[in-house]
Amino acid sequence: MIGAVSPPGGDLTEPVTAHTERFVRCLWTLDRDLAYARHYPALSWAGSFSRDAAALAARHAAAGDPAWSVRRDRIASVLAEADRLADLVDLIGITALPDQERVSVLAGRLVREGVLRQSALSAHDAYCGPDKAAALAEAVLAVVDRCRELVASGLPAATVETVDFGPVLRAGEEVGPHDAEGVRARREAMLTRLGGLR
After folding, report:
1. What is the per-residue pLDDT for 33?
2. Are 1 and 24 within 8 A, CB to CB?
3. Fewer beta carbons under 10 A from the terminal one: N or C of the chain?
């Protein structure tokens, strides 16, 4: 069953929306701030959910991708941590945060721009096959892990923030909808670039 609700004023607690949520297994919430920021699709990762994540994980595992649920959980964790720090960044500024938290903010940006943002006007990015989607998530998570390692080894977060993450962020638009190998090549190029910072 698919339920489409447009609550007045965006109030998700009003009765029609609340009762619709009782019957549907998944909710995609549109986010006005994301739309104004030109982040499409403007789906709120904090307000959306699926009650069938375990079933989807089992289906992906049966199809040869047992790491799907791990990637999903890590992406959700990165986004939640970045959202938690967003208000603090607005209040005191990014430079006042400890280096590890600055990397968490950077990680959220990389996930939003490298994995979640799509362009319907791009022949390569309007559609993304499951192999390419998995490769994009793995690439961004590998880059985030390397950034965390660099900062933990003593490299200032400000140095990591100045790196051009373009090879990973543009992979969605530059490689075909089923070209997971092209994404992996860009991931390796990005990890090599980060390796030169030591």
Report:
1. 86
2. yes
3. N
For the ranges 26-30, 68-72, 123-127, the lowest mean pLDDT is seen at 26-30
- Of 24-28, 67-71, 106-110, 129-133, give the lowest mean pLDDT range: 24-28
Q: Identify residue 33 by its one-letter amino acid code.
A: D
Q: Which residue pairs from 76-83 have beta carbons closer than 8 angstroms and sit at least 24 positions apart in sequence?
A: 76/45, 78/104, 78/107, 78/108, 78/111, 78/141, 78/144, 79/45, 79/46, 79/108, 79/111, 79/112, 80/46, 81/107, 81/108, 82/107, 82/108, 82/109, 82/111, 82/112, 83/46, 83/108
pLDDT in tens, 160-191: 999 999 999 999 999 999 999 999 999 999 99
**Which residue type occupies 85?**
L
Beta carbons within 10 angstroms of residue 159's beta carbon: 12
Crossing angle (nearest 10°) for helices 130-152 and 180-195: 10
Residue pair 141/116 in contact by the 8 Å Cβ criterion: no
Residue 19 has a CB neighbour count (10 Å cut-off) of 11
Tokens of 95: 């430079």
- 123's CB contacts (< 8 A; 6+ apart) are none
Q: How far apart are CA 37 and CA 4, in angstroms?
A: 24
Residues 6+ apart with CB under 8 A from 115: 75, 133, 136, 137, 140, 172
- Please state, rounded to an integer, the average pLDDT across all residues of the chain: 90
